[in-house]
Amino acid sequence: MVFLSIAAVALCCALLIVVASMFTGFIDAIGRGASDNLGDIVLEPPSELSVPDFRKFADMLEADANIASATGVLYSRGLLHLGKGDVKRVSIWGIEPAKRAEVTTMKQSLLRQKSQAEPPDFGNHSGELAGFIGIGLLQKPDEITDEYDLKKARDFIGSKVVLTTAAARKPFSREVPAPATYPMVISDIIFTGLTEIDQSVVYMRIEDLSSVLFPDSNEPLRADIIQIRCKPGVNPQNMVNTVWQIWRDYATGELGWSAALACGAEVMTAVQKQNDYIQELRKQLGMLMVIFGVVSTGVVLLVFCIFYMVVMTKMKDIATIRAVGASGWNVAGIFIIYGAIVGLTGAIAGLAVGYVLVVNVETLEEFVRVAFGLKLWSSSIYIFNKIPSEYDWLWAIKVFIAAIVASTLGAILPAIAAAKSRPVRILQYE
């Protein structure tokens, strides 16, 4: 019966730890994904405006001792024509490939160029537009394994597609821009592991996209967003105010904007941009832990029942201990310590089982798929192509302590019953 209570504590601990680890792993992966693809800090100018001559502003940022690199991104939307009847709606990002590789982890996501020592580039294609295409635009993941055929994806490199976009609308103008069509060479395939990017984004030179969006403009390059990477060891949160100050100096001094207009920009860390979503996930995690915690309180009842049965079946032994001089508190202490030991043993076992499950979650998911034909994780639904699996030690410690406390509480009433036993009556009866 005691081993049964230990097993119950272990299973409840493992359940809570797996749920907490999977959820916090998902939340942390969102934060890392934002930082990997947006940089440490993101600056967005006021609505409907962009940052003129953004390279000059990037130089001002990089002059700061704590900022490693900064780059601009120009955005547009369009259609990607891959073949007859195969048209995809896409987001078009105009980038500086070498600078973006310094600010983000883009280079590690390129199928052709990730191993080369030189910074990534779009190559020379005789004046034609060139671009990086998200792998999800070119093929669908396998329905069973949910994996892309990377070898087949590489065959698209060098092939031509057609990109349709429109000249940019002037700020605050109601004029509808006319669409324009351009042939494009696929110079590389990008595979970030983030479904939202892999299935919707086309990268091209910011100069090329600027000439498409602003064909009649002779102004320096502009950007819709500035992405910044801090130097190693620098907390991005501590640099937000510095970036703010540099931006205000640039907007009011170089651009001639009013202070009120300059203050309409947003400067925040990449993780903060995802903050609303992350906070909602944390609320859901809290609710889930409360629900499973309430379910797990059954362990207290189980320990109570088992220890009450032990007390009832050990009355003669309890009476003997009392008869030789042990006090009621001594007898109660035996069962309370016994309950704590049960909780400690079960909690240790639960932490070990939870660790094994979390670390090997990919293997378990694959086993379920092969054995039962049930795909538990789909990247098209859960954003990431791999299951985030990081053991959450903070939650593990909380569950560990809660398990010991719960088992101890479950043993209190039986311990009180044992303490109140009357040895003379019990021994006389026996």
Write the layout of secondary structure elements.
Layout: H1 2-38, E1 41-44, E2 51-52, H2 54-62, E3 67-83, E4 86-95, H3 97-103, E5 129-134, H4 135-138, H5 150-154, E6 160-166, E7 179-190, H6 195-198, E8 201-205, H7 206-213, E9 222-223, E10 225-230, H8 236-254, H9 259-262, E11 266-269, H10 270-273, H11 275-296, H12 298-313, H13 315-323, H14 328-359, H15 361-372, H16 379-382, H17 393-419, H18 423-429
Parallel strand pairs: 4-8, 5-7
Antiparallel strand pairs: 1-10, 1-11, 2-9, 3-4, 3-6, 3-10, 5-8, 6-7
Helix pairs in contact: 1-11, 1-12, 1-14, 1-17, 12-17, 13-18, 14-17
Protein described:
It is a single chain. By secondary structure, the chain is an alpha+beta fold. It folds into two domains: 178 residues, no CATH class; 219 residues, no CATH class. The protein contains 18 helices and eleven strands. The strands form two sheets. A six-stranded mixed barrel has the order 3-4-8-5-7-6. A two-stranded antiparallel sheet has the order 2-9. The longest helix is centred in the N-terminal third of the chain and has 37 residues. The model has no long low-confidence stretch (mean pLDDT 84).
